[in-house]
């Protein structure tokens, strides 16, 4: 069953990359986004690599330094033929539309930031209000504890335990979960803590370091880099301020943040196994160079 799930994931990744290449190849050569999508789609590690090569090998032959001029049009036509064949395989693998869209969004977010990711499915949610999920990727796929987990919208949480075939992810909304953040556009630093699921309304609590910071609803947040990028890599969209709390004698400004990720309906996620070459800062926020 796990290999069937991985096959569906890789087929979706291949189609996402192929469609992106067809759409964006042209006389000017491949765009930076195409190159980043290639890196993201080729980043599935461990035991799945051989399967990935089997599924995406025909597309990989076109992954040259660029697609200039007529050669680019020829490659695009060849990719179109590959997409037709892949769609047939995709139908046989019964990849749902929701899974395909989830894959495309995860790969798009990872590609935009230059992150290497292992794509996985959520196979179980924590019981008894426990703010964790189990995913079908583990150490055999390159997943390790203290790695960042995202979905197609933003931050999901961090890996807290990994076995060869599965991993446990602590959601950012979990009580006691803490993530450093940076506010757009000013760059003020702070941190968000989880408040639990139903009890906390799915919102995160935000505090900023600057005692004079003026917080306002609608301000957006991204992750700030952790030490050695563990457990959080920089630049992942976290959420948007939903309400500002009164200071009530507190030394730091406080607010409530609504996460971008729908933490109660997770399906396809990505585990970040390689940080970006540079901090993308706010480039991946919806409305700031990336479509939400």
- The average pLDDT score comes to 76
Helix percentage: 25-40%
Shape call? globular
Class computed from helices, strands and strand pairing = alpha+beta
Number of structural units classed as domains: 2
The CATH topology of the largest domain: Thrombin, subunit H
CATH level-4 homologous superfamily of the largest domain: Rod shape-determining protein MreC, domain 2
Q: Helical element count?
A: 5
The portion of residues forming beta strands comes to 15-25%
Major beta sheet summary: 6 strands, antiparallel, barrel
Which architecture of the largest domain does the CATH hierarchy give at level 2? Beta Barrel
Rg result? 20 Å
Keywords:
292 residues; alpha+beta; Thrombin, subunit H; 2 domains; six-stranded antiparallel β-barrel; 5 helices
Write the layout of secondary structure elements.
Elements: H1 2-24, H2 32-41, H3 49-60, H4 69-93, H5 97-113, E1 116-125, E2 132-135, E3 148-150, E4 155-162, E5 167-171, E6 178-183, E7 189-194, E8 204-208, E9 220-223, E10 237-244, E11 254-259, E12 268-274
Antiparallel strand pairs: 1-2, 1-12, 2-5, 3-4, 3-12, 4-5, 6-7, 6-9, 7-8, 8-11, 9-10, 10-11
């Amino acid at each position: 069953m796990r290999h069937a799930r991985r096959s569906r994931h890789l087929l979706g990744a291949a189609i996402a990359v192929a469609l992106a290449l067809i759409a964006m190849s042209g006389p000017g050569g491949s765009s930076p986004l195409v190159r980043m999508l290639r890196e993201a789609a080729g980043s599935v590690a461990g035991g799945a690599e051989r399967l990935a090569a089997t599924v995406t090998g025909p597309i990989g032959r076109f992954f040259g330094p660029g697609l200039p001029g007529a050669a680019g049009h020829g490659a695009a036509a060849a990719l179109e033929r590959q997409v037709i064949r892949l769609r047939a395989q995709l139908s046989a693998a019964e990849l749902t539309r929701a899974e395909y869209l989830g894959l495309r969004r995860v790969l798009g977010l990872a590609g935009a930031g230059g992150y290497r990711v292992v794509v996985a499915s959520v196979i179980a949610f924590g019981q008894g209000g426990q703010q964790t999920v189990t995913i079908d990727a583990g150490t055999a796929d390159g997943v390790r504890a203290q790695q960042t987990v995202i979905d197609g919208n933003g931050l999901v949480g961090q890996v807290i335990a990994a076995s060869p075939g599965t991993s446990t992810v602590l959601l950012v909304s979990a009580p006691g979960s803490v993530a450093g953040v940076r506010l757009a556009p000013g760059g003020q630093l702070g941190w968000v803590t989880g408040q639990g699921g139903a009890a906390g309304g799915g919102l995160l609590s935000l505090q900023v370091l600057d005692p004079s910071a003026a917080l306002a609803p609608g301000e957006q947040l991204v992750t700030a880099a952790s030490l050695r990028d563990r457990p959080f890599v920089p630049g992942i969209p976290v959420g948007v301020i939903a309400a500002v709390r009164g200071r009530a004698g507190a030394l730091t400004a406080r607010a409530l943040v609504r996460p971008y990720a729908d933490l109660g309906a997770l399906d396809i996620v990505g585990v970040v196994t390689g940080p970006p070459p540079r901090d993308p800062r706010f480039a991946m926020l919806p409305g700031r160079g990336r479509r939400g």
